[in-house]
């Protein structure tokens, strides 16, 4: 397995890789510098950079065009061609105690997004479901840093990380109703060198997790047993996503944020987007139905 990287652009806080199958581009954000990146993964291609009006957290492509964008403290419809951002109300949230973090669509076109305590200390975070009619519903609470939402190929299980608590939860998932129940600990990262950040599932139901602080991406089987680890030349990988024409390229975002000057000197590739070929492909990323 050969690990490669793109030398530009370098993010301070790279996050949120999303593969656009229609456009053939990988997209990701710099949550610190308020930027949205995209690029053709082919050799020699240049990246596009879109400045954003606010700090981004998570986003999804819309079936009718454009994006649903979650900023730290608000929601909007974004036109990535023009940069126009039209906000809409995020009801039921208290942005004095929580802010948006990671999110993803299910295959029915709902957008699931979590929040986190801005100081990453208190259990002020929750998990929300945004329906196509833009109704916002709280689905779980008591989280410190909600992260890494993904779904099994049969749509019967949702995985959800609390990074600060070092736990990956599993829920029984009803895709028809958009309900979750029976929360349980799927993987406990206690005692491991890193924490579970962003994650995704492949076509065989294996869960891939960026283990931030440990400098690796770890693959677990559907029973929660570790299969492999991809070692990285940076300590703070943040998220993962499958892409490419055959969905067999794993893209890995990383960050410079949180590194001391001496650590940055030792990790010149921190903040780069990495990619590697894998033997089991991923699944096409769902789009928001609203």
3D shape: globular
| Main sheet overview | 4 strands, antiparallel
Strand neighbour order, sheet with most strands:
1-24-23-22
Domain module tally: 1
CATH top level class name: Mainly Beta
Q: pLDDT average, as an integer?
A: 97
Regions with little confidence, pLDDT below 50 for 5+ residues: none
The overall strand count is 24
Organism: Pigmentiphaga soli
Domain SMP-30/Gluconolactonase/LRE-like region: 13-255
Protein name: SMP-30/gluconolactonase/LRE family protein
Family: Belongs to the SMP-30/CGR1 family.
List the topology elements.
Layout: E1 3-6, E2 14-20, E3 25-30, E4 35-39, E5 48-51, E6 56-61, E7 67-71, E8 74-78, E9 85-88, E10 99-105, E11 111-116, E12 125-130, E13 136-143, E14 146-151, E15 157-162, E16 167-174, E17 179-188, E18 195-201, E19 207-212, E20 216-220, E21 226-231, E22 237-243, E23 249-254, H1 261-266, E24 273-277
Antiparallel strand pairs: 1-24, 2-3, 3-4, 4-5, 6-7, 7-8, 8-9, 10-11, 11-12, 12-13, 14-15, 15-16, 16-17, 18-19, 19-20, 20-21, 22-23, 23-24
Pfam families: SGL (PF08450)
Organism: Pigmentiphaga soli
Family: Belongs to the SMP-30/CGR1 family.
């Amino acid at each position: 397995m050969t690990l490669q990287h793109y030398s530009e652009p370098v993010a301070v806080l790279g996050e949120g890789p999303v593969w656009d199958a229609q456009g053939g581009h990988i997209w990701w954000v710099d949550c610190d510098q308020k930027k949205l990146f995209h690029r053709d993964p082919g050799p020699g291609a240049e990246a596009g950079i879109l400045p954003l009006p606010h700090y981004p957290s998570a986003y999804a492509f819309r079936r009718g065009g454009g994006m649903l964008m979650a900023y730290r403290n608000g929601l909007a419809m974004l036109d990535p061609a023009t940069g126009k951002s039209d906000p809409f109300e995020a009801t039921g949230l208290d942005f004095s105690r929580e802010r948006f973090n990671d999110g993803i669509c299910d295959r029915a076109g709902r957008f699931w997004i979590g929040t986190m305590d801005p100081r990453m200390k208190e259990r002020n975070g929750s998990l929300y479901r945004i329906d196509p009619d833009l109704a916002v519903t709280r689905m779980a609470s008591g989280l410190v840093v909600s992260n890494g939402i993904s779904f099994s190929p049969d749509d019967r299980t949702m995985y959800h990380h609390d990074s600060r608590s070092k736990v990956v939860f599993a829920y029984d998932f009803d895709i028809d109703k958009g309900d979750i129940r029976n929360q349980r600990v799927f993987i406990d990262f206690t005692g491991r060198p890193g924490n579970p950040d962003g994650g995704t599932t492949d076509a065989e139901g294996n869960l891939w997790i960026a283990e931030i602080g440990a400098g690796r991406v770890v693959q677990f089987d559907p029973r929660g047993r570790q299969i492999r680890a991809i070692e990285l030349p940076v300590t703070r990988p943040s998220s993962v996503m499958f892409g490419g024409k055959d969905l067999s390229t794993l893209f890995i975002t990383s960050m410079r944020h949180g590194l001391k000057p001496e650590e940055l000197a030792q990790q010149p590739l921190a903040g780069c987007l990495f990619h590697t070929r894998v033997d089991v492909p991923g699944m096409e990323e769902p789009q928001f139905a609203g």
